[in-house]
Specification:
By secondary structure, this protein is an alpha+beta fold. Helix content is 38%, strand content 36%. Keywords: Membrane, Transmembrane, Transmembrane helix.
């Protein structure tokens, strides 16, 4: 008999505990549902304050030393030209010389390679500029034909544009996005007859930098446009609030 009483008591206790757990689960579920999640957007337009630009030049000759000497003369001509345009010497960087042996292939009537003829050495070097004088270097890159007119085989790349105060811009956008998100949450709570409670969670998106009014796609890891001098940055902030 005592054994039956103990069994009944344990069963009753388990039932009470089960009801308590169920009640807490319902309470917590209702509490988690009583929240507002909103996303705010922060944007800012700015102009790049740093530019990089590069170009390459080359020489071909059967004799390696002659090719190197000719390349050295071109390098001096390019360096002097850049200095004459107001570029500072510490902004000019020449890469190491790349040396390639050139061959001409011959084939027989069956299409088989039967002979490789050495046609000389090809030496290539790159010159790069990094400067905060954006307009000057931008103009220089557009008029690089002056170097070509001096008999130098020169290939110019497009400039790349950067902004050195990006950390400050990011802070301003985060503040703007957070304010935007909070205002949205307050409006939703007001329209539903509730009041905004404590902030439960905040999630920041990645910064996206594109050209203004462009159709560039955003990427999961963030977009960073370097082709445009004018830029527009944006960032999102997702906030989750309790609602009273």
């Amino acid at each position: 008999m005592n054994k039956n009483i103990i069994t009944i008591a344990i069963g009753a206790l388990g039932f009470v505990i089960g009801l308590g757990l169920l009640g807490n689960a319902i309470k917590n579920r209702n509490k988690s549902e009583n929240t507002i999640s909103v996303t705010g957007l922060g944007t800012k337009q700015f102009i790049s304050d740093l530019i990089t630009w590069s170009g390459s030049f080359s020489k071909n000759n059967f004799d390696l030393k002659s090719a190197y000497d000719e390349l050295a003369l071109d390098r001096k001509t390019i360096n002097d030209y850049l200095l004459s345009k107001g570029v500072k010497q510490n902004e000019i960087v020449f890469s190491s010389v790349d040396i390639q042996k050139q061959f001409k292939n011959y084939t027989d009537s069956n299409g088989n390679n039967v002979q490789n003829e050495f046609t000389g050495y090809n030496l290539t070097q790159t010159v790069s500029i990094e400067s905060k004088e954006v307009a000057k270097i931008e103009n220089l890159s557009r008029n690089i034909t002056e170097i070509i007119n001096r008999g130098i085989e020169f290939t110019s790349s497009s400039p790349s544009y950067f902004y050195t105060k990006l950390a400050t811009v990011k802070q301003e956008m985060i503040a703007s996005a957070t304010k935007d998100a909070k205002e949205r949450a307050e409006k939703i709570a007001e329209n539903s007859g509730s009041s905004l409670g404590s902030l439960k969670k905040a999630t920041m998106g990645v910064i996206q930098i594109t050209a203004p009014n462009s159709n560039e796609d955003y990427s999961y890891g963030g977009t960073f446009n370097t082709a445009s001098k004018d830029k527009e940055a944006s960032i999102t902030i997702k906030l989750e609030y309790e609602v009273d």
